[in-house]
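Incident review: delayed structure delivery

Summary: a single-chain prediction request sat in the queue longer than the usual turnaround. Root cause was a stuck worker, restarted by the on-call engineer. No data loss occurred. The affected request and its eventual output are reproduced below so the record is complete for anyone auditing the incident later.

Affected input:
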Amino acid sequence: MKSNDILRRVRFIFNFDDSKMIALMSSADEKVTRAQISNWLKRDDDPEQVALTDSQLALFLNNFIESKRGKREGPKPPLEKRLNNNQVFMKMKIALSLQAEDVLDILAKANFKMSKHELSAFFRKPGHKHYRECKDQILRNFLHGLQVIHRPDKITPSSSTVKTTAKKPSAKKPSAAKPTSAGSSNVAPPAGYQWKKKPDTKSDADE
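Output delivered after worker restart:
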């Protein structure tokens, strides 16, 4: 996922105001401005958006961890120059003090299911034989699940994740001996798509 997208989603989920965002995006050496925050939070199609670097996102997430769990003794770890989904996922998990079961519950809020074994692969060290790359879909579902929990009043049908439960069989089943037409399909259409009836063709409901 793009750093700007992650920043926008986390800000929205926890309803951070400008002052909180400035605090989380500032370091001991540099304090950011409200204008900088605004430019980072602009939508991807806005020509005035300023790209957020991985190091800036790492600083934001590290400060988020400190704000939730308190400062650790000793020097701060160096900021990552490159940040992948696995690292973002791990930092969010640490900040919110989540156990594996908690993460699975959050994913379930987005109608996304996976096993504990599958989840643990995202938090392995790179090079481990069970390490697995966290795809954008996984991280998006995790953030969406957090939104369902923390901002349920802002959930709209268009932003909800589509359930992937199996469809119930229809009462009328085609005969095994009856050949299917060349244009028929047993594949469920994507969410929001409606099959278009062919001209001069009888639908099953008219039979």
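Verification: The first helix runs from residue 3 to 13.
Action items: add queue-age alerting; document worker restart procedure.
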